[in-house]
Write a structure and sequence with these properties.
Layout: E1 4-10, E2 15-18, E3 21-22, H1 27-37, E4 41-45, H2 46-51, E5 62-66, E6 77-80, H3 83-90, E7 97-101, H4 103-109, E8 113-121, E9 129-130, E10 140-145, E11 149-150, E12 156-164
Parallel strand pairs: 1-7, 1-8, 4-5, 4-7, 5-6
Antiparallel strand pairs: 2-3, 2-9, 8-12, 10-12, 11-12
Length: about 160
Amino acid sequence: MQECIIIASADKNWGIGYQNSLLARIPEDMKNVSGKTKGNVIVMGRKTLESFPGGKPLPDRVNIVLTTNTNFKADGAIIVHSIEELMDELKKYDKHIYVFGGESVYRQLLPYCRKAYITRFNKKFLADSHLPCFDELEGWKLVNKGEWQISKKGIEYRFDEYIRE
């Protein structure tokens, strides 16, 4: 199986979401994520898919939803119900595989990932879902620390890249 790549945005406390929404939607991050993931595979949980505009899969990507809800259906998405089923499905693709969230999917798939693209916000938000702190994760190393920039929405952010050695 190909290795997975985590892609996420996180605040100073590694918060990633609140009440099933991103902490901040900044155009620069959306463009960055779209540029990396278009033409590839994204893996997410049911609630992440439901948080997308209209609850619809993202275009120009293979959308795979990992959920324990056996009744869940989504037009345009492939639904799997276990890590084993997901791994079997991923064998079909010769593309990059991005782990798209939310918290439980990130944590379940972390052992299968060797790279993480994290958009860091230089701010603390109210959050109810979090990533593990990659700076303290054993075996993970920050290999590309982006420069702080100000988004059109006035939020300071940078693009960081981690690898697992």
